[in-house]
């Protein structure tokens, strides 16, 4: 008997979905920072054993869209409700349970196993009494869901969660080759790692106005040569990304190269350029070019 299925991770921004995804897959698939709206795409991470294949999907945080990019991000999250065999709805100990009720109402109507994960329980100050109150509120909103307290950062409850997922998976042949880790190409992870450094090192609106495209990815036996472009919406943003005498861009390039070498386990030659692509976040054509329209 072989089991296989799609386990999709959804929830509001900044509740720890990407951290959980990385713990479940055992690889650094999704970028996870302290800033909201880190994940923009739906990213698959595949766990294989001889008897089983779990296809996890990390999705963007659910939000009310303000521009076309966010509309595409919401579409990725809603698509995860359509093809899940098991749904992981992630919240945390401080979130208002009634935030984004429109999306929650869609989850309520699903006829499939839903595991409600209360993340960051290591941050609780009121102990079991506080946790019980949070569980009660969520049980009223999602009465059919199984509720599990976890701390993705500290790996608390992750093994129990994984065991429960294995029990809920349907019998099925594998959907992907057993040596496959993700559905994304190498170039995707290059752009995500560069974007992660921008999220870490720049403030305010800058990280959310940025897109990264890989123009060249050439690998030989010993090295990988990469040319990437950071796109921004304004000339002023370009100046901030580059920084005085190029210092800021050099820092991003150096830190990205270190992470890429760790990711690919090879020396990396990385060149990064900065270009202005005015209002790309609101352009249907540009969003298609950057791969933001779900199939």
Overall shape: globular
- Could you tell me how far the N terminus lies from the C terminus, measured between alpha carbons in angstroms? 32 Å
Please give the radius of gyration in angstroms: 20 Å
Please provide the count of β strands: 9
Mean pLDDT: 90
Spatially, the strands of the biggest sheet line up as 2-3-1-4-5-6
Helical proportion, percent range? 25-40%
| Order of H and E elements | EHEEHEHEHEHHEEHHEH
Structural commentary:
Strands 2-3-1-4-5-6 form a 6-stranded mixed sheet, with helices on both faces. Strands 7-8-9 form a 3-stranded mixed sheet. The mean pLDDT is 90. It has 9 helices and 9 strands. It is globular, with a radius of gyration of 20 Å. By secondary structure, it is an alpha/beta fold.
